[in-house]
């Protein structure tokens, strides 16, 4: 599939989606977000794919929503046209694991899009921040909600109110990012992590993602009950039979198609 603002590649069982508006540091406009939604939905449906990697360029994952496109919006435009709900949150509907691989700037909506991935691997060049206050708006793609849940109130307030940019090491220390790797190894390491996940039973990976996301939406007791139902439901499935038999028979499991 050809896209105007994305480059997509398939590496074995892993789909790699690159945001690609290099002249605007991957500023996120309507077309790119529409295309991203289409590409994610297509790979989510594709039985050959077990994990998706979302990345940008060496210079920018994404420097935010497209300020040029937004500059003259009115409240009426944004409300009537359902900006940004109409096309920014397709990623949250993806049921397969999505790894964000971030190099360079992940600012504003770029940082928010990154935080909608299941986990982040950052290049040592990555820079995260929520500079919206400097251009006279609040964040609009979840940063005021996801940041405090991820890094706590004090750090979230600091980032959101001062608009300061943090580097990859700080982002890892405070928990925005799972791993930091040398910039020239970012894609290789993200693909390796994705290959590892894609070799697992997909149905179980999807259940784990579902259960972890439930943790942000419900009480501990309800969340643990939900996990328990999934755990019970796993018994008797081909993945459980194969995984446990392989362990007992001292061989590698074969999870293809499971
Ligand atoms: C539109 C952008 C852009 C953006 C960069 N560009 N960010 N265009 N929207 N968010 C464009 C620049 O205008 C410029 O175009 C080209 O990309 C290169 O950018 P420079 O500024 O020349 O690069 P540099 O000096 O290296 O500075 C990089 C930067 C800076 C620090 C990332 O570009 C910057 O501060 N960008 C804006 C970051 C920001 O405020 N993001 C939040 C947006 S609001 P030309 O044509 O001049 O070469 C947001 C709200 C989300 O995201 C709400 C929910 C959707």
TrEMBL record:
<dbReference type="GO" id="GO:0004300">
    <property type="term" value="F:enoyl-CoA hydratase activity"/>
</dbReference>
<protein>
    <recommendedName>
        <fullName>enoyl-CoA hydratase</fullName>
        <ecNumber>4.2.1.17</ecNumber>
    </recommendedName>
</protein>
<dbReference type="InterPro" id="IPR018376">
    <property type="entry name" value="Enoyl-CoA_hyd/isom_CS"/>
</dbReference>
<keyword id="KW-0443">Lipid metabolism</keyword>
<comment type="function">
    <text>Could possibly oxidize fatty acids using specific components.</text>
</comment>
<dbReference type="GO" id="GO:0006635">
    <property type="term" value="P:fatty acid beta-oxidation"/>
</dbReference>
<comment type="similarity">
    <text>Belongs to the enoyl-CoA hydratase/isomerase family.</text>
</comment>
<dbReference type="InterPro" id="IPR001753">
    <property type="entry name" value="Enoyl-CoA_hydra/iso"/>
</dbReference>
<dbReference type="Pfam" id="PF00378">
    <property type="entry name" value="ECH_1"/>
</dbReference>
<keyword id="KW-0456">Lyase</keyword>
<keyword id="KW-0276">Fatty acid metabolism</keyword>
<dbReference type="InterPro" id="IPR014748">
    <property type="entry name" value="Enoyl-CoA_hydra_C"/>
</dbReference>
<dbReference type="InterPro" id="IPR029045">
    <property type="entry name" value="ClpP/crotonase-like_dom_sf"/>
</dbReference>
